[in-house]
Amino acid sequence: MDNLRHPGVDRCANCGWPLHAPYETVSCHSVTEGTVVYSRCACGTLRVWLQRPGAGDRLLIGARRTRRDGTGTSSDGPGG
What we know:
Blueprint: E1 10-12, E2 24-31, E3 34-40, E4 46-52, E5 56-61, E6 65-68, E7 73-76
Antiparallel strand pairs: 1-6, 2-3, 3-4, 4-5, 6-7
């Protein structure tokens, strides 16, 4: 998996919550490349995303794995 957030398909490997709809946004910070967003999943897992205008959201830190609906596969990477 490419560590980009794919709305509607990527889910938390711990609880199945959709990654495109964070349970809680903890904080947001503007940086040179876009916005760093700290968000919490329904199971409590904290994830850090880099939102880049026109380039998609990239997962920086998070759960060990995420799963993609319909494929039955998961990916190990820097959190997703």
